[in-house]
């Protein structure tokens, strides 16, 4: 489920971003630069000696919820840190037709529940048609 970002201090211009669905819908066809920065925390305290061993986290920005080649941006982070809080970012350019949407997906192989914390962001800027 998506949590509503805090309104205070939030910069939001243009009609494309739906905060309820977490989707950015392109008003016109063109190349858009997308960026997301997620602050992620473990929901359960780590047991003694238990780390992020062999786990990884994929964060993707996908067009029309299809995370296929040429229609998504992706980063993979190895979770080797013993920290319970870390930051992961994805940025890049995608082509969207008018009316297509892009949204953020998190593929969690960490084996424990994760929470996306406040202060995380998702943005889209039209570069050109």
From TrEMBL:
Family: Belongs to the adipolin/erythroferrone family.
Localization per record: Secreted
Main location: secreted
InterPro entries for the chain: Adipolin/Erythroferrone-rel, C1q_dom, Tumour_necrosis_fac-like_dom
A GO biological-process term: negative regulation of gluconeogenesis
Molecular function (Gene Ontology), one example: hormone activity
Organism expressing this protein natively: Toxostoma redivivum (California thrasher)
Domain (C1q): residue spans on this chain: 1-129
Protein name in the entry: Erythroferrone
Entry keywords, A to Z: Disulfide bond, Glycoprotein, Hormone, Hydroxylation, Secreted, Signal
Gene Ontology cellular component terms for the protein in this record: extracellular space
């Amino acid at each position: 489920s998506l949590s509503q970002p805090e309104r205070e201090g939030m910069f939001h211009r243009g009609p494309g971003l739906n905060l309820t669905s977490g989707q950015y819908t392109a008003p016109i066809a063109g190349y858009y630069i997308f960026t997301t920065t997620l602050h992620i925390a473990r929901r359960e305290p780590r047991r003694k000696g238990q780390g992020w061993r062999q786990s990884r986290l994929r964060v993707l920005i996908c067009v029309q919820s299809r995370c296929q080649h040429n229609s998504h941006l992706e980063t993979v982070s190895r979770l080797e840190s013993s920290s319970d809080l870390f930051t992961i970012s994805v940025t890049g350019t995608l082509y969207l037709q008018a009316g297509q949407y892009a949204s953020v997906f998190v593929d969690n192989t960490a084996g424990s529940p994760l929470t996306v914390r406040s202060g995380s962001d998702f943005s889209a800027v039209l570069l050109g048609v």
